[in-house]
Design goal:
476 residues; 1 helix; 2% helix; 45% strand; globular
């Protein structure tokens, strides 16, 4: 199939590794019982009976999407060793019926990796794949059968300002990690956001033509100009908990109900304000960051591809981004913010709302010791449900994270109060990665049980394991 074509060397940072909401405007099975949580950390009452209670051996549920005909599409990921020298994630797609029975499983073609998926009103699915040659889009029918695929080729990347400098990478995809693209449904098309070998970020509105089984471009928007980013590594350890070492390359995308697309990135490590200077040079924008510049950035794009502006998600601390989720016409940026302490427990969950005009409201959650938010969904009766991981600690002078961690779900009331929703816990490391509110009111939560900490597999590869869970309940 013809390519989807669009018109017109860094020092490594090694992080030492040792074993181990205030507001501002701007289904699982455990092999062994989990240790009791610290007092006040989790609701001790057992979760109510689930409609869906799925356990996936060997992989955790990284994401999930509702299928129009019922059931779910689950994105399943296998934990990889930091010593495997792979820059591709190991993800598969599972089509599930309402009871969680697997209808189809899709693995990526040889030499490619699945990055993301989007389910459309027709029931068809678009999949974003990556390789050293760049990105491609693939289409599957409602039963998980392949329809067609199209490479993404964008000759304009080399022409984007600022001008290419000698020695700059000409790769169509980031070379430190290939996990640098996301898609979200836009009717039967998608909004696609990618990071290039120049470290620039570009967004596209992409259509799909059923008659030809081809994808085509409707608009192209430069989101982040080219600027330096330096890789971060660990001096020890086996597993990158939360994917934190690659998070500063991450690209996140959401589409609001009014058609506005949101594309988000976080600040890069040790880049000394290069991205802010690039914004100023190319867009004429002076972004209102904290003095340290350790913030996240959400760009709004109109339906015709017009760039509307960039909002800064900022606290006084180091803010790190892990997801962007649209609810109604707004986008929510999820992650963590660090108020450093010697115990390595100064991380709070970060939840920030960006509205279509670019106004930002930031809320932080202190659940138990180290906290991180991964997703958000509407709560029954109003407010939000935020899910993530808590009860962990990180080496205060490095990036090693403990094996102990609890999956959490918190209901945030519109008035500002929050309360715990009980979740099942497995042994070792637990994370709630995804939250969905279905049309019938069902709340779906998925993630990881019995996962590894940074050092769980040091000297014993059997420690690099995880179990995925996906559970649903009527109204919470």
């Amino acid at each position: 199939m013809p390519p989807l074509r669009f018109a017109a060397a860094a020092a490594a940072i090694l992080v030492a590794c040792a074993p181990p909401f205030d507001e501002r405007s701007t289904g699982s099975v455990a092999d062994a019982p989990a240790p009791p949580p610290p007092p006040g950390a989790l609701d001790p009452s057992p979760p109510p009976p689930a409609l869906l209670d799925l356990a996936v051996e060997g992989r955790f549920v990284r994401d999930a999407h509702a299928r129009p005909s019922g059931g779910m599409l689950a994105v399943l990921e296998r934990p990889l060793s930091l010593r495997a020298s792979s820059i591709d994630p190991d993800r598969e797609l599972a089509w599930l019926d309402e009871a969680g029975a697997e209808l189809a499983r899709v693995r990526p073609p040889a030499g490619r990796a699945i990055l993301d998926a989007a389910v459309h009103p027709s029931g068809e699915t678009t999949v974003l794949l990556a390789s050293s040659e760049g990105f491609s889009l693939a289409r599957y029918d409602a039963r998980g059968r392949a329809i067609g695929s199209t490479p993404v080729v964008d000759d304009a990347v080399a022409l984007d300002p600022p001008a290419v400098h000698p020695g700059e990478s000409a790769s169509p995809i980031e070379t430190a990690t290939h996990d640098v693209g996301r898609i979200t449904s836009d009717g039967e098309g998608v909004v696609l956001a990618t990071r290039t070998g120049r470290h620039s970020v570009v967004a596209y509105r992409v259509t799909f033509e059923p008659g030809t089984s081809r994808f085509g471009v409707r608009s192209r928007t430069l989101v982040v100009p080219a600027h330096p980013i330096y890789p971060v590594g660990l001096t020890g350890g086996t597993y990158d908990v939360f994917g934190q070492l690659e998070a500063h390359y991450g690209v996140h995308v959401a589409r609001g109900a009014t058609g506005i697309a949101y594309v988000a990135v976080e600040h890069a490590r040790a880049e000394s304000g290069a991205m802010l200077r690039a914004h100023r040079t190319v867009f004429g924008e002076d972004l209102p960051t904290d003095p340290d510049g350790l913030d996240a950035f959400v760009t709004r794009i109109a339906a015709d591809g017009t760039r509307l502006g960039t909002s800064v998600v900022s606290t006084p601390n180091d803010d790190q981004l892990y997801r962007l989720r649209a609810i109604g016409e707004d986008a929510y940026a999820l992650g963590r913010t660090e108020d450093w302490n010697e115990a390595g427990t100064g991380f709070d969950a970060l939840v920030a709302r960006v509205d279509p005009q670019g106004a930002v409201t930031v809320r932080t959650l202190a659940v138990d010791r180290g906290d991180i938010a991964f997703d958000v969904a509407p709560a029954a009766g109003g407010g939000l449900v935020v899910v993530g991981a808590s009860g962990w600690a990180q080496n205060p002078h490095g990036a090693s994270i403990t094996e102990e961690s609890h999956a959490f779900a918190r209901r945030l009331a519109a008035g500002g109060s929050d309360s715990a929703l009980p979740l099942s816990q497995g042994p070792r490391h637990n994370e709630a990665r995804v939250a969905l509110r279905l049309a019938d009111g069902t709340l779906v939560i998925g993630g990881m049980h019995d996962g590894p900490g940074t050092h769980s597999a040091d000297g014993d590869a059997s420690g690099l394991r995880a179990r995925g869970f996906l559970t649903s309940e009527r109204a919470r």
